[in-house]
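Could you help me review a protein record that somebody else here produced? My question to you is simply how this chain folds and whether the tokens agree. Thanks in advance; the entry in question is below:
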Amino acid sequence: MSYAPVNATRADLFNEETWLQGAILCSVGYGVVLALFSMCFYLLVRQMDGTNRRRSVFFLAYISIEFILTSLFQGSIAKFVQLAFIENRNYPGGPAAFEENEFAIPVDRLGNVAFVLTNWFSDALVVWRYMVIYTDCGVPLYIVMAVPCLMFLASMALGIMWLIQICTSSPFGIFSTLNWTIPYFSLSLALNIIVTIAITVRLYMFRRRGAKVFGRNYGSQYTTVAAMLVESAFLYSSFSILFLVPFGMNNPLSQIFLQALSQVQTISTLLIVFRTAQGKVWKNNTQHEVTLQTIQTYSSGNPISFAPMTFAGTTNSTHQCFDNHLVDLWGLAACRTSSQARFQ
């Protein structure tokens, strides 16, 4: 015997199912956020001293704001589900109609504002990581940062328009006649995809060039597949696609990923902060530090994995190539070639 809701179509039920499953997935994501936040907070406090106090305080404030916003979003999702499925279960059209018609009530506004603010904070961190990784890349920084910064500012503008559209009945016609959902999420996704690809390419090229000189383990702490995916916030980019594709097709499956999207982005952000607290994240001078450490290890006679070429007797000429510790991997390859020719 079936006790399905009266007058509810299969499409209505599927819409409600995906909404509820999205709320459950969002709760699972929040559990991961809580665990990562606790780990980051503990690690940052434990490592705080006179040399890194300012940086640690900044990251503590940053992850605390992110966690508060994520908690507000999670609370909003839980309360809205409670209103739709319990307190207003006889709403005309069922919970799906309640979701569609009552999206501008205060509790949902709170969640939407928290969602957009979380998105801005997370995107800002990803753009900052992009700037750090592309420092000293040989191209003026203002050129490297032009496109990501413009896209970030445009994303903020679209986020404001989206909030106005879904939270109020705006008197401005442009906010009611255009649907800002796809432009806002698409631009945020495009920003993250571009930064993801750019960061991954930069780290891969760093490892590839270094491997030609020092062997395949050169800089592996910063250039493993896992490290590159974390640094580039790949998790959020891939999850955004899972939302946007069905949303563009007007498929209710998009609701599953939309509700968890904020948690996934916060997870990506906290993973970057966690690697920063561990000292494994790429810094402005990481390329120089890694190369110099490798040279010092080689010079002291410690065994490391080099590319299969003869280095006997090249220590002095190699050090001459790194005057004042300014390391360029292309120059290093040329230096090694000339050193080998000298001692063959």
User: Anything to note?
Assistant: Residues 290-343 form one domain. The radius of gyration is 25 Å. Residues 10-47 form the longest helix (38 residues). The chain has two domains: 10-289, 290-343.
